[in-house]
């Protein structure tokens, strides 16, 4: 049975991150600090051998992947871009204030923010609630989100060799959602959002998916 070790890395800090704006399928550039964090992650993983490197098709993840690859001592190719590993699509809420949007979505359910909702329901349900609240009804539903991400994981199992170690530069909500879905009580992704440049390790096979580590950073 084929088994893959995936290193999911959240992209470096972006301009929208510093403004606390929702940034799903919209994009903003890495800040100087975001570049520094990506380079630090690359230095941290310099001696880790990767058979393949993927990123979402957003510029912030492609740039982060290239900064990491530049520091790696064994991989010197280009990242493979996959829309499957994009961030969740926030629809009509893209670019708006993160706190204000989640307060608006959560209030009808007796909560104040996304974290309080995730204490009681799955990431897929939260996606459905955002879709329902979106005036444009463009935000991804839970089914749409997981169908896309699962297709990306399935593609890896088909196209990558057994026991390959693969680096994937992706996004915070996607990584958090994977950890809630496949993790155990050793991790607390509901209350701890993955940091920019952090590493989350996932073991993927046809019959089982498990989280090995979550939100590892170079900070001591």
From TrEMBL:
<feature type="active site" description="Tele-phosphohistidine intermediate">
    <location>
        <position position="11"/>
    </location>
</feature>
<dbReference type="GO" id="GO:0005737">
    <property type="term" value="C:cytoplasm"/>
</dbReference>
<dbReference type="Pfam" id="PF00300">
    <property type="entry name" value="His_Phos_1"/>
</dbReference>
<dbReference type="InterPro" id="IPR050275">
    <property type="entry name" value="PGM_Phosphatase"/>
</dbReference>
<feature type="active site" description="Proton donor/acceptor">
    <location>
        <position position="87"/>
    </location>
</feature>
<feature type="binding site">
    <location>
        <position position="60"/>
    </location>
    <ligand>
        <name>substrate</name>
    </ligand>
</feature>
<feature type="binding site">
    <location>
        <begin position="10"/>
        <end position="17"/>
    </location>
    <ligand>
        <name>substrate</name>
    </ligand>
</feature>
<dbReference type="GO" id="GO:0016791">
    <property type="term" value="F:phosphatase activity"/>
</dbReference>
<dbReference type="InterPro" id="IPR029033">
    <property type="entry name" value="His_PPase_superfam"/>
</dbReference>
<dbReference type="InterPro" id="IPR013078">
    <property type="entry name" value="His_Pase_superF_clade-1"/>
</dbReference>
<protein>
    <submittedName>
        <fullName>Phosphoglycerate mutase like protein</fullName>
    </submittedName>
</protein>
């Amino acid at each position: 049975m084929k088994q893959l070790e995936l290193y999911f890395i959240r992209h470096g800090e972006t301009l929208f991150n510093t403004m606390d704006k929702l940034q799903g399928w919209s994009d903003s550039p890495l800040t100087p600090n975001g570049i520094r964090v990506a380079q630090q992650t690359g230095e941290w993983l310099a001696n880790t051998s990767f058979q393949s490197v993927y990123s979402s098709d957003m510029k912030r993840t492609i740039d982060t992947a290239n900064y990491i690859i530049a520091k790696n001592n064994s991989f010197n190719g280009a990242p493979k871009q996959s829309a499957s590993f994009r961030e969740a699509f926030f629809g009509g809420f893209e670019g708006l204030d993160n706190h204000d949007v989640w307060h608006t979505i959560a209030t009808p359910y007796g909560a104040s923010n996304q974290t309080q909702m995730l204490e009681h329901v799955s990431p897929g349900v939260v996606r459905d609630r955002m879709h329902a609240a979106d005036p444009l009804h463009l935000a991804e539903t839970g089914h749409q989100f997981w169908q896309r991400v699962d297709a990306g994981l399935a593609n890896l199992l088909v196209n990558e060799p057994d026991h390959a170690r693969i680096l994937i530069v992706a996004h915070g909500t996607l990584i958090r959602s994977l950890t809630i879905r496949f993790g155990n009580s050793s991790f607390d992704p509901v209350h701890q959002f993955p940091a920019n440049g952090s590493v989350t390790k996932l073991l993927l096979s046809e019959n089982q998916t498990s989280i090995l580590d979550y939100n590892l950073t170079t900070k001591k």
